[in-house]
Write a structure and sequence with these properties.
By secondary structure, the chain is an alpha/beta fold. The chain is built from 35 helices and 29 strands.
């Protein structure tokens, strides 16, 4: 403001710079515009024209009349104001944007890219399909593919799928209806584009498959056009690249299928284009009719030539496998793709769709079972690829196979890499039943690169043969003997043959339970179910119960499950995405979120405090809880889902990457609760205020003292028991009865810190400085601005300890903080192991050092008082 008071004395170019810098930095700050208005009213400032226009535009942003917001926003678009994209998302609401008319085909200045906005809208909880949404699906698919940034992307992915579908349709009609030469020429032209070396010669492999199919159908004129185009492509390839051309996986697999009919003159004409290929490499059916019936020798779909192998066990045939048969497995027949289900405990016989392998049927026997499955496919089928997939997965059959991605590689799946020391060598123990499995460590080598078995992977026939040869060698046999993880073993064996995993466009979504009877939530790769708007190829469901749901979603529009993202950052998917997935049903969220006040909490393994937390806030009149669960494995998630007044989101991102939970809480508040009261509380933070035992909090917030405020400052009051921590189980009288003491002077003011916004007094915890003497005076901040009526221009710090751009209430409240209890030691051990809290859980490490010295009593008669007798508490509550 001081600079503006003297702006007339500045050169013209500096006036322009000051105006531009002011609007860019403070254009969305109500504090700035209020200060400018006061200065103008007092005659201290005569603002330049753009600032006067800016003041009028900002007033429009808060005006309650149609079109005012967009009109105000138009001004700030021109000045590229900081925070504009965030304001659009929060003020308009991601679920309310009419994207079908607003976004496609244009990039609005200052907005998030179209694709990200489409994901926010289609995934927004409660937003169903709308007319015209199908026009957004290409944007949605492109956005999801882009944000799966772990996997490399083919520049021709869309063309691969379009060409494969066109070729499939052409073959389906070739035997019964006349075809158009122009139609065939378009397909061949596209295949020619895909024939480049950088695309793995896929187009040549697809032409060979198309030729195979046409000759089987007797469509000779069309087949001759394909053969002529193949010959032309073959001739254009430099001579030095022609000798080993047949070894390209896409070409070799197609030649192997053709070679099954090598006595056919039409087939020999195609094979002659690849003179270095030996047709004898193709498998031949056994002469014995019984052995022939055991295998699968008819390659009905030469464009795919893949056998789907579902890994299961005898115990899961009536549950998981039955659900798959009623689900996506039935869709394989539409493309002529066969499948088998493999279990252990047999001798290689096939009974309908089940093959009982001569291998163990337990978890620790998976390496042997996998090798036996590969051996069975290699010896008993003519398929050139096998897709290994578990019985708790869902496959989008058209997306996976029509994309043709897997045919470009010998080994295809989600790539994992383990540096020395990164392998969990006890992964198998909890799932094993034998003494060997429960007691022996995995001793397989590192570093290691392999395809994740839980996400499925594909082996070409060449890779199958190499795998079996490697396993039979002395180094391979030794490796098998020390391996418990079948997927890692496969990668390690193939590495001996210099075959590496490729994951190009392998878009998967992974969901896992944290406990045997738990609810599956996102883990590692956070994405969507398969469907026309997603393009995800495979979903690891982790249960049989979601197979029907996944099949239903694959046939519907929109994006599922529903998600929210922080509004201040781009939309991300995959690993460490920061995405919050709605686990409760949408109807419950709508009902709960309609309340004028909601408690918004982040939780992880809080069953010790959770019942007390819910009971306390319900007694205060709270009727809505919006909880973000961070992969609890102690039953917290399941308990929350059973509560009718709780809507639950799950997030799989590391806690340390969330501003210690604030980013997740603010994602809920900014997306769902703009201009409504929200209390952001941890499970061990119980709110108390003047008259808290008789006054309902929602009613209090409607009183004049708080009605016109935006936020309330809460002091964090560290509570502890008089006796040892282990006695504070909260089973007898609850937290306030069993941890009822505080330090007489609970808050310290001996720091000069004013926070990141330089506008707040800083209180710190006297207790924590007493327990950990010598700590910096500015840590252990004992205040939170956690009760907010959120506005889009508010700015909160990590931990909610500081706040800017808000009107504070005069009244303060307290968070009774019950960290110190019987569960504290176990919590400290867990958090030190996780390393997710501030400075690698520094505070918890120091607490464990104290406990190692036998200090389990926090109470000190020299400084401790009953919390009712603390003067600071009385000043706030009386």
């Amino acid at each position: 403001m001081t600079l503006l008071e003297h702006i007339d004395s500045l050169p013209d170019y500096m006036i322009t710079m000051v105006v531009e810098a002011t609007l860019t930095a403070y254009g969305l700050s109500p504090t700035y515009w209020a200060g400018l208005a006061r200065a103008v009213a007092e005659g201290r400032i005569d603002p330049p024209g753009p600032l006067r226009e800016g003041a009028r535009a900002f007033a429009l942003l808060t005006a309650d009349r149609p079109g005012a917001f967009e009109a105000g926003l138009a001004f700030f678009d021109d000045w590229k104001v900081a925070g504009l994209a965030r304001l659009r998302i929060e003020r308009i609401g991601a679920g309310a944007v009419d994207l079908t008319t607003r976004l496609p085909g244009r990039q609005a200045r200052g907005q998030e890219p179209d694709e990200g906005a489409v994901l926010r809208a289609l995934a927004f909880p409660g937003r169903g399909d709308r007319p015209g949404d199908k026009a957004l699906y290409p944007l949605s698919r492109a956005a999801i593919r882009t944000r799966h940034n772990e996997a490399p992307k083919s520049e021709y992915y869309r063309l691969q799928g379009d060409t494969s579908r066109a070729a499939t349709a052409f073959l389906a009609a070739a035997g019964t209806a006349p075809h158009s030469d122009a139609q065939l020429d378009r397909i061949l032209a596209a295949m020619g584009t895909l024939a480049a070396p950088r695309n793995g010669f896929l187009g040549i492999g697809m032409m060979l498959g198309l030729y195979d199919g046409l000759t089987r159908l007797g469509a000779d004129p069309a087949a001759q056009r394909v053969l002529a185009r193949l010959a032309g492509l073959r001739a254009d390839i430099p001579k030095e690249n022609q000798i080993g051309l047949f070894r390209a996986p896409a070409i070799r697999s197609a030649l192997l299928v053709l070679a099954l009919r090598r006595d056919d003159p039409a087939v020999r004409a195609a094979l002659a284009l690849f003179p270095h290929f030996d047709p004898a490499e193709a498998p031949q059916p056994p002469v014995d009719p019984v052995a022939r019936r055991t295998g699968i020798w008819d390659v009905a779909a030469p464009l795919f030539s893949t056998l789907v192998v579902v890994f299961s066990c005898r115990a899961n045939l009536d549950g998981r496998v039955a659900a798959m048969r009623n689900g996506w497995l039935a869709g394989l027949a539409d493309l002529g793709i066969p499948y088998v289900v493999v279990t252990g405990g047999g001798h290689g016989q096939r009974e309908d769709d089940v093959v009982r392998l001569n291998a163990p049927d337990d978890y620790e026997g998976l390496p042997q079972k996998t090798l036996e499955a590969v051996r069975w496919v290699y010896r008993n089928t003519a398929c050139t690829h096998m897709l290994k997939i578990d019985d708790d997965c869902f496959l989008d059959v058209p997306e996976f196979f029509q994309s043709q991605s897997h045919r470009k590689f010998d080994y295809y799946g989600r790539r994992l890499f383990r540096k020395p020391g990164e392998t969990d060598r006890m992964w198998h123990m909890d799932k094993s039943t034998s003494a060997r499995g429960r007691l022996e460590l995995d001793k397989s080598p590192e570093p290691s690169e392999y395809a994740d078995g839980g996400s499925g992977y594909v082996l070409s026939r060449h890779a199958m043969g190499a795998l079996l040869d490697a396993a039979a060698s002395a180094p391979g046999a030794a490796l098998v003997n020390v391996s418990f993880m079948e997927d890692k073993m496969v990668g390690d064996l193939l590495a001996l043959c210099d075959i590496r995993v490729a994951e190009e466009d392998f878009l998967v979504s992974i969901r896992r339970r944290t406990r045997p009877d738990g609810v599956p939530t996102p883990m590692w790769l956070n994405s969507f179910f398969a469907g026309p708007a997603s393009g995800v190829k495979q979903v690891h469901l982790d249960t049989a119960t979601d197979q029907a749901l996944a099949l239903k979603r694959a046939g519907q529009g929109g994006l599922w499950p529903k998600k929210l993202w922080p509004t201040f950052a781009p939309v991300r998917l995959g690993y460490q995405s920061g995405a919050l997935e709605l686990i409760s049903n949408e109807a419950r969220l709508t009902r709960v979120n309609a309340e004028p006040l909601a408690v918004v909490a982040c939780m992880r393994n809080e069953m010790f405090m959770l019942p007390h937390f819910l009971t306390h806030y319900r007694k205060l009149g709270v009727r809505a809880f919006l909880v973000i669960d961070n992969r609890s494995d102690d039953g917290t998630l399941e308990h929350l889902l059973a509560q009718p007044d709780v809507a639950v989101f799950s997030v799989d991102t590391d806690y340390r990457l969330s501003q210690y939970g604030v980013a997740w809480q603010m994602a809920v508040v900014a997306n769902l609760r703009v201009n409504r009261w929200s209390l952001m509380a941890d499970a061990d933070e119980l709110l108390v205020y003047r008259g808290w035992k008789r006054k309902a909090l929602p009613k209090l917030l409607r009183k004049p003292a708080l009605r016109d405020a935006d936020a309330v400052r809460l002091r964090m009051l560290d509570m502890y028991p008089r006796g040892p921590l282990r006695a504070a189980t909260f089973a007898k009288g609850g937290p306030f009865a069993e941890a009822d003491h505080v330090d007489a002077r609970p808050f310290l003011r001996d720091t000069v810190s004013r926070g990141p916004f330089s506008n707040a007094e800083t209180l710190t915890s006297a207790l924590r400085h007493r327990l950990l003497p010598g700590a910096r005076p500015d840590i252990f901040v004992a205040q939170k601005f956690a009760l907010l009526k959120y506005r889009p221009w508010m700015r909160v710090s990590a931990g909610l300890h500081y706040l800017a751009e808000a009107k504070l209430a005069d009244q303060e409240m307290l968070f009774a903080h019950f960290k110190y209890n019987a569960h504290f030691r176990a919590k400290a051990v867990e958090e030190v192991a996780r390393g997710q809290h501030f400075n690698d859980a520094e505070e918890y490490r120091k607490y464990l050092d104290l406990m190692a010295e036998g200090r389990e009593v926090i109470f000190d008669p020299a400084v401790s008082v009953h919390w009712d007798h603390c003067e600071d508490v009385r000043r706030i509550l009386d």
